[in-house]
Give the backbone structure.
Amino acid sequence: MTHPTLKRIVCSTLIASAFALASHGASAAAPLAKASAPGYFRFMLGSFEVTALSDGTVDLPVEQLLSEKPAATRTALSRAFLATPLETSVNAYLINTGSKLVLIDTGAAGLFGPTLGKLLVNLKAAGYDAAQVDEVYLSHLHPDHVGGLLAGGAAAFPNALVRADQRDTDFWLSQARMDQAPAASKGYFQGAMGALKPYQATGKLQPFTGKTELTPGISAVPNYGHTPGHTVYSVTSEGKTLLLIGDMIHVGAVQFGAPGVTISFDSDSKAAAAARQTVFGQAARDGVLIGASHLAFPGLGHLRASGKGYDWLPMNYTEQRQGH
């Protein structure tokens, strides 16, 4: 083939390609997808399979909620390339021990605004059905942790036993306490009562007291302060540990560097700050993995002591592979 012939073929091909693009429109004209992938993230902890599940995100005016001055909060957020209102994750964690399927916290469903309530959809996308969940452990009974117990007014997890610390059930399920509570707080009581009612009616709400092994490899550890019965769950398999710390932290950009900063959602801010210092210090020393309900999804990582605070080291992305 001569060079002039080759040149003619190349030119013809380029012209045909340009005509095809012009006929079908440029790819930049495609509509915006406006959706993310399903919100789940899976990894192995020893022989346990752990799946982080997203219930969605909610915008919080954190400069009005934290105990430090609003200007200091805005400065800390800016350093982390964030702003207020802060889009805040609501995370839950599913533990497959091989013999039980345990869900820790359930998200908000409809109790905390229209941007949440995605947990059941993401559970399905992750390959599980709500009817397969054997037990549900609640870090505490705030609406964004118990709302997902209900679906269409019925128990979302029809075969599950529900466990929570007795201090929290005694407090949030008390009609007398609700009657005495300020009007702005009554919704917390109503949300907890409504979400747990079908489980109470069938004897499937079983509170525990203090430090308790609930199933082999998963233990409840008292962490009172954020609520009267706030609980951390320690998950251990083959020498590896994951601490699911619930609402010990809400705004990582602020509270890792200044662990003494509290949030207005705390029932006892002094106790909550002390509990955070204790758990964070131990976690940093032991190098254990942490899962937090309101850090950016999937909310998993390690802590490293840094001055009077901590650095947050997010977990490396990992995929489940055949043979692993």
Notes: Confidence is low (pLDDT under 50) at residues 1-7, 9-24.
